[in-house]
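Just curious. Protein, please.
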Amino acid sequence: MFEAARIATAMINGCQICMNWQTKRDVSQMGIEKGVIDNGIAPDESFILKF
């Protein structure tokens, strides 16, 4: 749910960085180890491509 809301917000705001962001892939690069990435299964690439 988080990723869907995040993508929808990025689209509404027209933020290219946000639209290309994938939490599962990118958050660990920022040194973050806990948070929304622990809230269940992350969507796969096919989910993201639907947007």
The two ends are 14 Å apart (CA to CA).
